[in-house]
Every structure is written in C-alpha cells, then in structure tokens.
C-alpha cells in the first residue's frame, strides 16, 4: 500500500525508507563478494525467486529453478523440512517492492 499506517506499506518511492536504503547500500558495498542472493520464507517453508510484481519470467529462470531444487532438497536431507520453491508471484502471492525483484 501507499499509506504508512498499513502493515504492507512499501514506501513512497524505491529506496525511500531507512530499511531499504540500508539493505541497498550494504549490497552495493559488498557486491563484489556476493555470488548468490536468496529470499526464503522460513515460516511458510518457501524458497522464492523473481518475480513478485509480475507473472513475467526472468531470462535465467531455468537455472534458478535448477538451483532452487538442489537447495531445497539439501535442506530436506539435513533437516527433514520440505520447502516449496518458485516465483514469488505464483508461490505465495503477487507482491511488490520485494528484494528479489531488485
């Protein structure tokens, strides 16, 4: 939403809020060290990939799905916990202003 009083407030503009500014700056400062960025929803046991704002698919979706399957199978083999994986939009619900879409 666009009302700061609601729990789903996404900010007035990209990187307009302190939390998103801090994450953006940290990632930019460390981007030479980052080889993978993931977004997982531990409570819902979801391993999510782009996109959340659209049903569009990224050009490297097949690769992301391949590694998502490997990762979720590894979690299951160690912890016994099953994670569903896939694009945010279809795995949980449409969502805007989420980190994997950046």
Order of helices and strands: HEEHEH
Strand order in the sheet with the most strands? 1-2-3
Major sheet description: 3 strands, mixed
Number of helices: 3
Question: Would you identify the regions where 5 or more consecutive residues have pLDDT less than 50?
Answer: none
N-end to C-end Cα span? 18 Å
Strand content: 5-15%
Outline type: globular
> Helical residue percent?
25-40%
Oligomer: single chain
Radius of gyration: 15 Å
Summarize model confidence as the mean pLDDT.
86
> How many extended strands?
3
Derived from helix and strand composition plus strand pairing, the structural class reads alpha+beta
Explained architecture:
The chain is of the alpha+beta class and 102 residues long. It contains three helices and three strands; from the N terminus they run H-E-E-H-E-H. Helix 2 links the parallel strand 2 and strand 3. It is globular. The model has no long low-confidence stretch (mean pLDDT 86).
């Amino acid at each position: 939403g666009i009302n700061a009083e609601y729990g789903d407030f996404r900010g007035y503009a990209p990187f307009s809020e302190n939390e998103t500014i801090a994450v953006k700056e940290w990632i930019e400062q460390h981007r030479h060290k980052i080889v993978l960025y993931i977004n997982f929803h531990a409570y819902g046991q979801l391993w999510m990939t782009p996109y959340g704002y659209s049903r569009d698919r990224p050009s490297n979706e097949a690769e992301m799905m391949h590694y998502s399957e490997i990762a979720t199978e590894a979690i299951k083999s160690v912890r016994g916990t099953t994670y569903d994986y896939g694009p945010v939009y279809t795995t949980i619900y449409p969502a805007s202003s989420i980190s994997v879409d950046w």
